[in-house]
Amino acid sequence: MKNIVKQITAAVQVRIFLVMVMSFTGSAIYSQQNVQLVIGQQPVYKVARAGETMNIDGRMDEASWKNAEVRSLDHFFRLDKPVEKQNTKFRMLWDNAGLYLFFECEDTSLTARETNFDGRTYLDDCAEFFVVPVPDSIYMHFGFEINITEVRYDYIVLWRYYNNRTFFISGYNPQYQVKAVCDGTINNDKDRDRGWTMEFAIPFSAFSNISSLTRPAPGAKWAFQAVRQDRNAVDDRFRSTSTLYPIYNYKLDVHQPSQFGLMEFVDK
Ligand SMILES: [Ca+2]
Ligand SMILES: [Ca+2]
Ligand SMILES: [Ca+2]
To answer: For a Cys staple, 194 with which of 40, 158, 166, 183, CB 3.0–4.6 Å?
Structure first.
């Protein structure tokens, strides 16, 4: 009898161990591990001033980009294999007219299928930027999701606006410039590509008069998140997403404003 109990106990222990291993490896692949932080606790991104006219051509030829703080989008989820952890560098500048963004992405397989304005660009190789022109995680933010063929999806997010549901107002179509440069061939799974870059100029007027609440000036802080979608096969839909600020629970989506970080405008 004792032996049977021992065997059962051992079998249960093995099963618990296997479940723990599976849940650990599963969560390591599918979610971002870390202590949860709140806005203001993550490193603040210092936005340096652009000292010249920026040419939005998808290239970092302007000397000002050398002054921009460089951050890697190191927080990955939805990875199938570690090889899908492709490097992304994010930079941002500002001047009196607006914000300038630069995404620099390694990518061995350029993928973009959406051709419709305000379509599902997030299913492609895509750069995403969410911004709240105040230093808080309020329920609303502006969103920009541009695929590598420069198809735009821009919207206003109302986070958990009604009955816990989030709404995307895609009728928001602000004026801004964006240019992508691809190094490789798009939608050819057989060859090996090298990467892509994307440069943005988003005027402060795109945020309507909301930006007057915390006027962009040295010392002012706004909340934001930068995201890169990486698709590596023509039938790829949701795979490999990386973020600048950790979001911990990807099931709650990259749009959780409580997981945004802060940018601070600096005068240099
Ligand atoms: Ca440029
Ligand atoms: Ca839109
Ligand atoms: Ca890709």
So the answer is: 183
By the CB criterion, residues less than 5 angstroms from ion ligand 3 are: 107, 109, 111, 125, 230, 232
pLDDT tens-digit series, residues 72-110: 999 998 876 766 799 999 999 999 999 999 999 999 999
pTM of the model: 0.86
List, for the chain, all residue ranges whose pLDDT scores fall below the cut of 50: 1-2, 4-5, 8-12, 14-29
Between strands 75-77 and 165-169, the pairing is unpaired
How many CB atoms sit inside 10 A of residue 133's CB?
23
Q: What is the Å distance from ligand 2's center to 55 Cα?
A: 24
In the reported structure, the alpha carbon of residue 54 is separated from the centroid of ligand 1 by a whole-number distance in angstroms of: 6
Residues 62 and 105 in one domain: yes
Output the six-digit token pair for 63.
């000397």
Structural domain containing residue 15: 1-30
Helices vs strands, H then E, count in the chain: 1, 14
